[in-house]
Protein 1
Amino acid sequence: MTVEEKLGQLQQLTWTGDTGPGGGQTAETEAAARAGLLGSVLNIHGARHTNELQRIAVEESRLGIPLLFGLDVIHGFWTTFPIPLAQAASFDPEVSRRDAEVSAAETRTNGVRWTFSPMMDVTHEPRWGRIAEGSGEDPYLNAVFAVAKVEGYQGPADGTELGGDGRIAACAKHFVAYGGAEGGRDYNTVDVSEQRLRNHYLPPFKSAIDAGAATVMAAFNTVSGVPAHGNAHTMQTVLKDEWGFDGFVVSDYTGVQELIAHGFAEDGADAAALSFGAGLDMEMVSTHVVDHGKALLDAGRLTIERVDDAVTRILRLKYALGLFDDPYCDESAEITEPTAAARAAARDTAARCMVLLRNEGAALPLAATAASIAVVGPFADSADLHGTWGGPGARRYPSVSILDGVRAAAPDAVVSHAGADPDEAAAAAGGADVTVIVVGEEAELSGEAAVRSDIGLPRGQEELIAAVAATGKPYVVVLVNGRPLVLGDWFDAAPAVLEAWHPGIEAGHAVADILFGTVAPGGKLPVTFPRAVGQIPVYYNHESTGRPVDPAHPDEKYVSTYLDLADGPRLPFGHGLGYTTFSTSEPALGRDEISRAELARGEQVTVRVTVTNTGERAGDEVVQLYVHDVAASIAQPVRRLRGFERVTLEPGATVTVAFELGEEDLGFWTNDPAGTFLVERGRFDVYAGTSSTAPARTTLRVL
Ligand code: NOJ
């Protein structure tokens, strides 16, 4: 390969969806492919059009190296699954695996073999719109869901299935600490200690890499002053040297160019030298590596070894994906719409993601005998409940509205509808046995660059709820949103509140499944819901302070709290109700009947928790395991999630869930930039139960 051809492999240019070559807008990309000066194209899809462009690269360029096509398939290609934050709320990684498998099959048959997913940016910031795209505030939960997605897209960690039908390459993003943006403002500064970086932001990436994630995307933010796109500590030292990552790192959209605006690079040449020198392998959209690479090599500002390494990484993935064997896709096998099986998976998973936040007097499930039901609110009849980052399917296939879902589930009831007008909603409620109020956020209010300073229900929706409540008739509230919301006083008065998130293509049917109890709700919050914006950041896995609130002395002034807010969040991480009741035992340590409260180095201990369905309906519960290192050389979070399992139990049934705890669960990374993981001797509290506030506790001593 010539130097120019090598540099070309490091370049990714954009396209315009399902259009073919020959158009004016894509002329530059097409010309680069023809000249053999292009490695990858994003935002193209469709079997015929990808084949046409591929044919130019393979048949008209000197070396015929196939292009790698990439696309943001975040929660569905044709079949839109719930947003990723919702998927995390299922506390069931199979939900994400099914999304990834369906998405991979649809994507690959449309000529695309690489998705820019999963996102695993742990965040404490509900204002940040991209909270919708990840798995919330906990590193462990993010890691489990990242692994499920990587495996669903790619198959086994050794990459042996990457070339096969129904498989695409994953991209672990955004590397790293993007969720730490100050004030939740997108792209904003992140100043993070090494221990916070390693304990909080890096673990999901490590798990994704161990699961075989083929690529990583750099983040738009700085990491302690150094932009992630030019950060040798994160990209080279941690990712490639420590973890042995042998895939490639792609920039985010114009991320190399943005090193100039960051005040890190003086010009484009500088930006290319700094980013590629720091371990970046592919430049998305801006073209500095191609424009300046030769001069940088001549000037000794970039080494040919680094360029060769980056090229090798990219070509290795092209081989693994089978592009050198067959660069084209079979146009006759193209999936062009959601299949019935894919829709069934989307419906089933969406229901598993919903979280019953409140249910006074068993207001839910709705009686199948209700003669009249009003479905009201601005989202009652919305066919756009796909959420942020829908794929091509979100533009082509409307989601089932909640109104239609209720109609289908209650064919004998008179179902009326009113939109966003409070008077009309109240009138409809007045004439119905029960009212379903559907409120929330449009998809555009979450996702990239969709940051809100006020995360209450927008635009008069609280007034609409109040108007319905004032009728004195029964009602329930369904929330459709992409982030935690500040729930106003209406929440405490509402008989029932169901968090449905943005549920995807089968939204209305999945909501109706829960409303009528065909499916029991069993999801849990993957993020804390704050009482007020002024309380943010509020998250369950915070560090201890020297002056925590003592519930026994609520009037104590000199403690870490707000004068004008009750202590703690509105709703804690891990919270979620069901239609039945469960009891959970205290966690028991040790195998069999032998209790073990001590752990020697290198050992593991089993924690057993017994769950019983004490109610009258079958239902799901998520058993959650948390640990706390009581005294450590670096103050540890008051609780850290280290295990969970969603179980389904018939009335009266009991099951014992077993978790293994080892050093990995009990230790922590220090501030040593070279990476030191410590397991310190002493006492650990072990909590198990059904939310992050579970009181049931035992202790363990590490020897
Ligand atoms: C910008 C986003 O930050 C990233 O997540 C996405 O994959 C790229 N654009 C490509 O669309």
Protein 2
Amino acid sequence: MRGFTLRRGAALAGAVVLVMLTSPPSYSQEPRVIHVTAERFAFTPSHITVKRGTIVELRLRSEDTNHGFHIAGSEFNAIIPKRGRGDATLIFRADSAGHYTFECSKMCGAGHTIMRGTLTVEE
Ligand code: CUA
């Protein structure tokens, strides 16, 4: 399991910079576990709100085929396995307040391009 730091780079005009940690992070708090389901062509929930500083553990599961989970503007990308093949886990610290778009990054059919959602990091 890898840790990620979610930052909003001031010089990147709203782009997201994910900083991978080279060693397992030692958390001073328990991660907030959020279960997200992917199913053609939506994520549930599609709007996620966390407080700044929260360590977020996303557990991504599919109800049908493979999907992807990409935070726009970042290099971070996960493949969500088919239904019954387990889930993908993403851990990051939400360091910067803002609105971040996430989107499906694996072609999954006609509605692939509208399969997206929002992550809001509140102050
Ligand atoms: Cu789901 Cu593409």
